[in-house]
Amino acid sequence: MKRSFKFLSFRLFLVLGTTIVIFNSCGNFLKNKSTYDKGVIINGVKWATRNVDAPGTFAAKPEDAGMFYQWKDSIGWSATDLINSNGDTIWNDCYFGGISWEKANDPSPAGWRVPTVDEIKALFDTDKVCHEWTTINGVSGRKFTDKTTGNSLFLPAAGLRYYSDGALFDAGEDGCYWSSTAYKHYETHAYYLYFYSDNAEWDWDYFNRSYGFSVRAVAE
Fold first, then answer.
1. Domain residues for 124?
2. Which end of the chain is more exposed for a tag (fewer CB within 10 A), N or C?
3. Which segments of the chain does DSSP mark as H helices, in order?
4. Residue 212 forms part of a structural domain
5. 135 burial class (0-12, 13-18, 19+ CB within 10 angstroms)?
6. Is residue 86 within 8 Å of 201, Cβ to Cβ?
């Protein structure tokens, strides 16, 4: 007599370091995400060591680009193909208004958030922090080092996505990172960190909120 068994699927959760890998019963890959980061303190601010990747996750390594975000938006855009974290390919050249990047739209993993402009400014306190253009594992970027502790933070020069059509510009040459702080005199602009091989600065005026920038989170 044959016995009929109903196929029962199951999920196997494997925790490997900071990465959670989920497989179904047929061994198909479902999800691979990293939501934990040890962080590093630079001039009193605890920064994540990796860029934000898909919403709620970190990139695998400090030199990885992660995803690009328009200001105050929780939708990430790939650093390679023009496709976003929802699977769409239509770039939105509009921008969000308002004076701050609310938690509801923050793509950072739990316990982290987009930094304020004051937290970015702390990286440029020359009495306490120095910075230099460098390369890690073949990826160019800028390293910020706390003069007291020796702690360092590497930001890859991931480039940016252009405001009108989402085209990728200056990957490997420039780094552009959003703050959560709006520029109060122009609703179209917000503060950001910008660097290239010869210089680094915080600013607000050159890029508008529709550009796609990297996000490097700070601890809540």
1. 38-219
2. N
3. 117-121
4. yes
5. middle
6. no
